[in-house]
Design goal:
The protein is of the alpha+beta class. The protein has three domains: about 280 residues, HUPs (Rossmann fold, 3-Layer(aba) Sandwich), CATH 3.40.50; about 180 residues, Isoleucyl-tRNA Synthetase, Domain 1; about 100 residues, Nucleic acid-binding proteins (OB fold (Dihydrolipoamide Acetyltransferase, E2P)), CATH 2.40.50. The chain contains 20 helices and 28 strands. The strands form eight sheets. Strands 3-2-1-12-13-7 form a six-stranded parallel β-sheet, sandwiched between helices. Strands 19, 20, 21, 22, 25 and 28 form a six-stranded antiparallel β-sheet that branches. Strands 5-4-6-8 form a four-stranded antiparallel β-sheet. α11 crosses α12, α12 crosses α13 and α13 packs antiparallel against α17. The protein starts with a strand and ends with a strand. About 0% of the residues have low confidence. Bound molecules: 5'-O-[(L-methionyl)-sulphamoyl]adenosine. 5'-O-[(L-methionyl)-sulphamoyl]adenosine binds next to β1, α1, α7 and β12.
Length: about 625
């Protein structure tokens, strides 16, 4: 027996509140990696769960006048279903630190380390950050606050058990240096080396005066420190001290995903616990960045948490998963905005992917009676085959380095290449001029590209790959990533056109019909000639008067001087500006727009304004210009 299982973990989450999109982010990423490894044909153990003990939960429960267990149970049930269920989290085990299987392991480990002298009894005097459940010495505090989260800390003085971190400072440092992959990305590795070099002090690993935790077996007045308890979950879930076969085939974890704020626990305390137990250390701890709202971390404490269930209701699971996995390079911090989610869905999924599928299936229907062509051996067109092979390589390299967003970028490059290929090859012309063999080859290439894309998207999206395959005439779901190799022989398959893959979404989150769909974002085949641009006459003008339009809560009527005369312009900006804000300001107007009647008023032109989501701003020159100056 040896290691044969690919083992991946997420942090176990505090069920002190419902989880938010930040927690979903880590879990969806771990899920995509787990699905990818299953498609490689590996046996996978994917574990997530909940961290249920500790003072913070104890306090919250007492505020809610419940026992801690009664407080966390419904929250944990909700996390499992509907939250993880609807997000398609394919975990193999869900661990709760209140399960007897876990409590036994924590107590056993504590006792072993005590027997070995790595844990000893002493007196703790110092500071405690309750929200982070972390201990700090005076010297580490920043202006008297927690150096990690900046919140106030509490003074603690009590008898305590200590874990001898200091004994392992040198071996840990040595381990990190000789295992460059252990802490990723590299920036976090350097941070941790600096932290270790500043000196490791022994860690208080028990508390008195709180009840909600696992008692020290030989001294039950003491409750084991919540992080010691929590980190042990990874051992419990792998079968340690319970199921030798499970443990020996799974240990150590291949990848442990954590947010950057808890990298320290996972790369200092955790490996030292394992060293003290003589157990192998995880291959990789990957500290990813935060989802931010503006400049701040999304989180309960700042009250800016976004509810994933609301997003699922509004957009469906695949757009949400796609956005989380694609938007932010894994490792870096990134802003979360709903507008960006909508834009990603509209541009990548609805426009690029949806159009490729719809155009390809429509052309196979029209030109080949819906029969999927086979590859013509004589064809020397390797454009899509070459691009697909290159993308497959990049996809694998990216996934092996946990660069999930890069993997998706590569896949969508293939999609865009195929759309461009349609424009280059003009299958409609090939049909018109009777070039049937070439036509069949081109359509085969497009069909085959879509099939490959359906394979490569399987780790990330839930039902989209099958919906693509259904339309392509394929019934079997994807079972192995190797299916993403160009050259499949579609014997006797017929196209089954269906609905648009993704309806476009408008700003309010509503799906919109094709007719009123917003124009796709700028893509290469959207260029206009300079001559087209020059047909538009933009001029600077000054607003001389402004007033609301009666009975229209979005419209303002403006009088704008354009250097020659005053014009009346009706503009839909009333919800963003008070009339007085605009009087005296210079604006840019489209001067040769055909006049149009709005609410009975003839509007002679249009103002330029930029907007995204709820924000809107009227465009104005950086420094004053003569009224009438041309803008080009
Ligand atoms: N219970 C500890 C972890 C113990 S692991 C042995 C804990 N729990 S938590 O509920 O606070 O979850 C923290 C994790 O949630 C982070 O490490 C990160 O993976 C994820 N995130 C929470 N907020 C996040 C963002 N705003 N952005 C990205 N991930 C975030 O810490």
């Amino acid at each position: 027996m040896g290691k044969e299982v690919w083992y991946i973990t997420t942090p176990i989450y505090y069920p002190s509140d419902n989880l938010h999109v930040g927690h979903a982010y880590t879990t969806v990423a771990a899920d995509a990696l787990a699905r990818y490894h299953r498609l490689l044909g590996e046996k996978v153990l994917f574990v997530t769960g909940t961290d249920e003990h500790g003072q913070k939960i104890e306090r919250k429960a007492s505020e809610a006048q419940k026992t801690p267990q009664a407080f966390v149970d419904p929250i944990v049930a909700f996390i499992q279903d509907p939250l993880w269920k609807r997000l398609g989290i394919s975990y193999d085990d869900f661990i709760r630190t209140t399960q007897p299987r876990h409590e036994r392991v924590v107590q056993e480990i504590f006792q072993r380390l005590l027997d070995k002298g790595d844990i000893y009894k002493g007196v703790y005097e110092g500071w405690y950050c309750l929200p982070d459940e972390s201990y700090w010495t005076e010297s580490k505090l920043v202006d008297g606050h927690c150096p990690d989260c900046g919140r106030p800390v509490e003074r603690v003085r009590q008898e305590s058990y200590f874990f001898r971190l200091s004994r392992y400072q040198a071996p840990l440092r040595e381990y990190i240096l000789s295992h460059p992959d252990f802490i990723q990305p590299v920036s976090r590795r350097n941070e941790m080396l600096n932290f270790i070099d500043a000196g490791l002090e022994d860690l208080s690993v028990s508390r008195t005066g709180i009840r909600w935790g696992i008692p020290v077996p030989s001294d039950p007045e003491h409750v084991i420190y919540v992080w010691f308890d929590a980190l042990t979950n990874y051992l419990t879930a792998s079968g340690y001290l319970q199921d030798t076969n499970r443990f020996e085939t799974a240990w150590p974890p291949n990848v442990q995903l954590v947010g950057k704020e808890i990298v320290r626990f996972h790369t200092v305390i955790w490996p030292i616990m394992l060293m003290a137990l003589d157990l192998p250390i995880p291959e990789r701890v990957f500290g990813h960045g935060w989802l931010l709202i503006g400049q701040a971390k999304m989180g309960k404490s700042l009250g800016n948490a976004v509810d994933p269930i609301e997003l699922l209701d509004r957009y469906g699971v695949d757009p949400v998963r796609y956005y989380l996995l694609r938007e932010v390079p894994f490792g870096a911090d990134g802003s979360y905005t709903e507008e960006a989610l909508i834009l990603r869905t509209n541009v990548d999924l609805a426009n690029d992917l949806g159009n490729l599928l719809s155009r390809t299936t429509a052309m196979i229907n029209r030109f080949l009676d819906g029969q999927v062509p086979t590859l013509n051996a004589g064809s020397d067109d390797r454009v899509l085959a070459g691009e697909a092979a290159q993308v497959y390589r990049e996809f694998q390299e990216a996934m092996d380095q946990l660069l999930i967003s890069d993997a998706l970028t590569a896949i969508f490059r293939l999609v865009r290449r195929a759309n461009k290929y349609i424009e280059e090859q003009k299958p409609w012309d090939l049909a018109k001029t009777g070039q049937t063999e070439k036509l069949a080859n081109v359509l085969y290439g497009l069909w085959e590209t879509l099939r490959i894309v359906s394979v490569l998207l399987t780790p990330f999206l839930l039902d989209t790959p099958d919906r693509i395959r259904q339309q392509l005439g394929l019934d079997a779901p994807v079972t192995n990533i190797k299916e993403a190799i160009f050259g499949y022989e579609p014997q006797g398959l017929g196209i089954r056109r269906g609905d648009a893959l993704f309806p476009r979404i408008d700003k309010a989150g509503e799906a919109v019909s094709e007719e009123s769909a917003p124009a796709p974002a700028v893509v290469e085949d959207n260029w206009v000639d300079i001559a087209d641009f020059q047909k538009l006459e933009f001029r600077v003008g000054t607003v001389r008067a402004a007033e609301p339009v009666k009975g229209a809560d979005r419209l303002l009527q403006l009088t704008v001087f354009d250097g020659v005369r005053e014009r009346t312009i009706v503009s839909g900006i009333r919800q963003h500006y008070q009339p007085d804000d605009l009087v005296g300001k210079q604006v840019v107007l489209v001067a040769n727009l055909k006049p149009a009647k709005l609410r009975g008023i003839v509007s002679e032109g249009m103002l330029l304004a930029g907007s995204q989501g709820d924000v809107l701003s009227v465009v104005t020159p950086l420094s004053p210009l003569p009224d009438g100056a041309r803008v080009k």
